[in-house]
User: Which sequence fits this backbone?
């Protein structure tokens, strides 16, 4: 059974509004710095994100030190504890568990992919036509992934 994010389920209309109206500004770059402790194998950085209705948030980016094509980002907003949107350029295939009557191979979503939530607060992975079209380029360039394809063009 899939884990439910109750806060997103309760405030789903606002969640959809926030996802649909992401506003971000990234200066020339996001500075990625070495992590420490259990995160020492990663480089990470973040920038502020402004949302509608004056909600504040952040775009957190991370990249593996040893495998530069392994990167991703998460979008956070002050209202919710967990990321409201996540992107994985590389890594494990995700298996959507929403409908277990669907054959496993049809629930398989390979990287790169996004994660967001449905009206029941269940997280799911998905790919968009633009993501599929530029898959190789996105997986091999964090600059392309972050500079040219941040959420507003990908999430539809």
Assistant:
């Amino acid at each position: 059974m899939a884990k439910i994010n109750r806060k997103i389920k309760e405030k789903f209309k606002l969640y959809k509004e926030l996802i649909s109206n992401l506003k971000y500004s990234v200066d020339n770059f996001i500075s990625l710095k070495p992590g420490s402790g259990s995160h020492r194998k990663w480089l990470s950085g973040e920038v502020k994100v402004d949302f509608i209705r004056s909600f504040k948030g952040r775009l957190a980016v991370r990249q593996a030190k040893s495998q530069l094509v392994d990167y991703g980002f998460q979008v956070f907003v002050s209202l919710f504890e967990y990321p409201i949107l996540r992107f994985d350029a590389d890594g494990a295939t995700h298996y959507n568990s929403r409908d277990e009557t669907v054959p496993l191979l049809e629930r398989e979503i390979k990287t790169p992919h996004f994660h967001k939530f449905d009206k029941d607060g269940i997280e799911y992975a998905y790919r968009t036509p633009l993501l599929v079209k530029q898959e190789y380029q996105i997986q091999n360039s964090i600059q392309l992934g972050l500079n040219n394809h941040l959420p507003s063009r990908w999430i539809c």
Notes: Residues 6 and 121 are 6 Å apart (CA to CA). The beta strands are 23-24, 33-34, 42-50, 56-64, 71-77, 85-88, 94-95, 108-109, 113-117, 123-126. The longest strand covers residues 42-50.
